[in-house]
Amino acid sequence: MASASRSRRKPSGDCIFASRPRPVGTHGKYKEAPDKHVNIIYDRRIVRGNTFGQLVVPTTAQADPAEIQRQQEIKRKAIAIKRAQEQCRAKTPEALQGRKHIDVQTDLYLEELSNIIVATDIESQTDAFLDRPASPLFIPAKLFDFDREVQPVLEVLVGKTIEQSLLEVMEEEELACLMAQQRAFHELRNIHLAEVQHLQEKERRHREEKERRIAQQEEVLEKERETAEKIAARAYTKQDLADLVPAAFTSLRSNGYFDDPVETDVETDFLPWLMDEVNSKLERRFTARQLLDNIIHDVAQKRLEQFKEPET
């Protein structure tokens, strides 16, 4: 027999719910406060310790050690490059004994340097009252003492001139000192460069000598190998081809490959000379015959002209 909480199927095939209905329990809107007071120190939601400390990254979120090492290496290289640039930067040499460095203006016009900031007060005022009379015009005194008035101007001019002259002299001395230090530096650098070139040349000669010795040794070994091969080939030829040379010469001589020296001399030397002589004689004979024909023709032409003259 099935339980009452399970569904039953009617003979018609429909499914019905057979559980007995019961009321739903009522719950409060908020959670009820505990009966006893709870210390918040033991609450797991409260952060304990120094909240300003460094946040501990969990093991799963830590960066790759190789990436950290690469970043540290990049920082060290940047610091080394910056330090090298600072060392290579040209610095002002130390002042001479009894001298000191001062700031020199390089502008076109000199300007007085002072640590006091110049302040200017500006005021605005309305027009004066109308009942106040106009201020009289300022009329300077006609008395003028040239010696007394010119003394401050001369003091300023002379002081500025002397100060500028002293600055120029000190600048020239400093420039001369810098030039001397620069010449000494160039001389020392040239000495170092000459020493470096000497060492490089010495190293080059040693390297070339080593390469030449190696090449000579390889050439000697190559010659020895070629000599051994030639000796072996010569022995093989003498042993296996001793009867080949006489047989080859006999066959060539019987087939007429070796020429008779007398016949060769006649064909190469005598016959060309003979043909040249014959051609030369024939050419002289032809020239003589042509010359004789021209003479005969000229004589016959003159005789013919003489016979024609009486008739005309």
TrEMBL record:
Residues 1-31 are annotated as: Disordered. It comes from the Eukaryota. It holds the Pfam family Radial_spoke_3. It comes from Pleuronectes platessa (European plaice). Residues 199-234 form a coiled coil. InterPro entries: Radial_spoke_3 (IPR009290). This is Radial spoke head protein 3 homolog. Keywords: Cell projection, Cilium, Coiled coil, Cytoplasm, Cytoskeleton, Flagellum, Phosphoprotein. Residues 1-10 have a biased composition (Basic residues). PANTHER family: FLAGELLAR RADIAL SPOKE PROTEIN 3, RADIAL SPOKE HEAD PROTEIN 3 HOMOLOG. It is found in: Cytoplasm, Cytoskeleton, Flagellum axoneme. Belongs to the flagellar radial spoke RSP3 family. The lineage of its organism: Eukaryota, Metazoa, Chordata, Craniata, Vertebrata. One of its GO terms (cellular component) is cilium.
